[in-house]
Amino acid sequence: MTPSPSSATSPPSLPSPPSSTAPKPPLKRLTRDQRRDILLLRKLGHTYEYIATFLKVSPRAVQYTCQKQDATPQHSRAGRRPKLTKEDGDRLEEFVKDAANNKMSYAQVARALWPEGGVGEEAVKHALYQRGYRRRPPAASSSAGKDGAVKKIKKNKDTSTPVQNENA
């Protein structure tokens, strides 16, 4: 009597994959631990189908992970896209360079440049921050008191000076 071919391909160290009547839909992305397990099981000699059934993931996910040979997924386009384009940022920077406009609040700058309301205060603040602009307190010789002082938008040239946050 000869041994069956299926018993020769499956290592005896792991239990057989669970047989379920209704397969669960796989997650959209595999976790780091799932990828690590896939690579480990593949090194032990298991097939893509066995690994996919055992870990309850798609065979294509197993194949992709084995081809990449990396347990850490890379997401190059993670995060939210910026509201303002590069051209909008250039326009914004030119606007705040003018001495009359650098005392405006972020909301006022947004309303002045985008009156239709497509850009908000936070988008303006973030775009200026990305370009090195920070809110600066007025000079000590200013006639305005500490409570009524208007903060200017200035480009941060000295990185050793701590940057103060806008409180108003």
From TrEMBL:
Residues 66-75, 159-168 have a biased composition (Polar residues). Residues 1-11 have a biased composition (Low complexity). SUPFAM superfamilies: Homeodomain-like. Residues 1-33, 66-90, 130-168 are annotated as: Disordered. Residues 12-25 have a biased composition (Pro residues). This is Transposase IS30-like HTH domain-containing protein.
